[in-house]
Design a protein that fits this description.
Elements: E1 10-14, H1 18-30, E2 35-40, H2 52-56, H3 71-78, E3 81-84, E4 86-92, E5 97-102, E6 108-112, E7 115-118, E8 122-124, E9 137-139, H4 143-156, E10 160-164, H5 168-179, E11 183-188, H6 199-211, E12 215-218, E13 222-228, E14 231-236, E15 242-244, E16 246-249, E17 253-255, H7 258-262, E18 273-274, E19 286-288, E20 293-296, E21 303-304, H8 309-323, E22 337-341, E23 344-350, H9 353-358, E24 363-368, E25 384-390, E26 396-403, H10 407-419, H11 444-456, E27 462-463, E28 478-481, H12 485-490, E29 497-498, E30 517-520, H13 525-535, E31 541-544, H14 547-562
Parallel strand pairs: 1-2, 1-7, 2-3, 7-19, 9-16, 10-11, 10-16, 11-12, 18-20, 27-31, 28-29, 28-30, 30-31
Antiparallel strand pairs: 4-5, 5-6, 8-17, 13-14, 14-15, 20-21, 22-23, 23-26, 24-25, 25-26
Helix pairs in contact: 1-8, 6-14
Amino acid sequence: MQERWNADMKVVIVGGVAGGATAAARIRRLNEQAEIVVFERSGYISYANCGLPYYIGDVITDPEDLTLQTPESFFSRFRVNMKVRHEVTAIHPDKKTVSVKNLQTGEEFEESYDKLILSPGAKPTQPRLPGLGLDKLFTLRTVEDTFRIKDYININHPKSAVLAGGGFIGLELAENLRELGMEITIVQRPKQLMNPFDSDIAAFIHNEMRKHGVKLALGHTVEGVAEVSGGVDVLLKDEQPLHADMVILAIGVSPETTLAKDAGLELGIKGSIVVNDRMETSISDIYAVGDAVQVKHFVTGQDALISLAGPANKQGRIAADNICGGDSHYTGSQGSSVIKVFGMTAATTGVNETNARKAGLDVDTVILSPMSHAGYYPDGKVMTMKVVFEKETYRLLGAQLVGYEGVDKRIDVLATAIRAGMKAPELKDLDLAYAPPYSSAKDPVNMAGFMIENIAKGILKQWYLEDTDKLPRDGSVTLLDTRTVEEFTHGHIDGFLNIPVDELRERLDELDKRTPVYVICQSGLRSYLACRILAQNGYDCYNFSGGYRFYESVLLDRWTRQNAYPCGVERP
């Protein structure tokens, strides 16, 4: 990149957390002479949003660990004037100034700029509901919010909490408050937690939360909160209220774009700031980055809001490059994310099956349940992997993983493959590191590639979870379970015949070649082997995507939700 020095350039940045702090540091690295001023409304800069729930749960014990830099340390290293507790109240593009209020002194003044970067982030969504001003009601977005919640817990010792919202913050809070010994209920309108995941994969997250005592009240609308003797009630539509000692709203975030709107900047989805791939807004010399901006989804090419720290930091760097005379471009976000759910890890990248179909894509999926490492090495754990790809082209679109070991490694490989434009069958060709404690010679990512290649070659045909109740039980198709007799006795789908795969060759005469055969096993491997035996003996066969383990997990989740009171307690 060609450096262009401008001793007189003054850059003002609104917001000093992820994108804003990154932009400030990058500008200084590229231009030693520029004047850089950052206004941050809170009392902290460059803090770790993702770490806030873990401070509440005493996993992070030192509050100073929440901040990567202080205004003093940032100035010492970068000579950037970080003005905390200063709120920008207006932008004046015609004058190239911003109005600023010192929140400590009340002083108001104007600050000029040559280039302006908006990094205001997002604010917690707070619907206009009765009771929002109660002192037992909290939101979590800033360090100050964290301290308020932590102080309330330390002083009042609440025994229960209701969390409204089941996204990243909601789940992380649920885990940390549960580890403190509190009774936790998550309530939200959607019928699943973690919308980046398909409902079938989210079922594993639901089951893990329930296993650790978290109650789930999904599919319920919060209509307000009310203080009652000894606590607070969360009011639900058409249901009895949920009672707790405290309530935390974690129902999502909205772009913080009042400044942009008032200044006349073009806005997009949910009032977000529209930028081009250079992070330039509709008004000259004003840039925007982070959670407040509308981006292109890397996979679908559609406009999207993706509130993640990684994209925000990349956008801050790109804006800085371009301000300093470069030509950097943001190629889009693909939403790669990972979350710890007690002992489980859940991760996703790209686009899930639901959103891919909404985007008009014709997709297929494979679901597999590989071991985290070599089966002969002790303590291997099963993970569940769902890979989404486009029919006809076999373009790799997305992936979701849940498990207890090795999930983060695989999701990063798959995220890289999507970014590289790989076709899904090419996953089989990846040369991935192998040692028995870490993987298998055929890594789970490779296995997904093998399966998709078999589909592409016509070797593998699948049937899916949503087909289960549609399959006729009148003899027009053959329903075959290839697990052991013991496994079958422990649990099976009604209407299925049990022939263990190791006995199949000797019992082929029990099956009618004139009818299609729908095959299932525990994970999908034995049923695939059965399909290969059957196909080469003249049968038309289909393998269940995911196996009985997958079917049972999703079915259990559905049964639990259908047979639960709003508080999440199962009905007798």
